[in-house]
Amino acid sequence: MQQNRNQTLDDVVASAANLAGAHARAAARYRRGHLWLGVPAVSLAAIATTAAFVALEGSASFAARAIASAVTLLVAVLTTLQNFLRLAEHAEAHRGAAAAYRAVQREIRFFLDEYNAVDSSLSEEQVRDSLRSIRTRLDELESRAPDLAPRDLHAPPASEEGRHRRDDLEQRARA
Hints:
- By secondary structure, the protein is mostly helical.
- Helix content is 85%, strand content 0%.
- It has 6 helices and no strands.
- The protein has helices at 2-56, 62-85, 87-116, 124-144, 150-153, 160-174.
- Helix 1 runs antiparallel to helix 3 (87-116).
């Protein structure tokens, strides 16, 4: 029975690790989107403000006033998109879910260390209670975690450089 529990919990740890990674990728994607909209909006707002002062002087040409109006309109569109899409909020929600899945991973690993210890004093009832608690936490986390896009569920292939670095670290760990 202990072998089956170990295997099941190892599978749950792997699943939690995959979901933590997926939520981390989603958080990074939303953060990038927030910056891609936010930085141009702030930059263009500064330009539009300067252009508005020039246009107020009355010496600006029609083309300069038209460009200033277009930039102002673009700023309005970008800031409206940023507010509508709520990319920063989505990034934070995914970051929180990733952290919660990593916490469950750690909890399972600590439980496995105690469960598999030679001098473990865990009773069968304590083991069942711990497993129920872990299952409940995972169910609650799954129900409140934000949805993932399919592209976030699959890790990108490791680069050749990253693969060599990982192989080197594994060899050093074995030595």
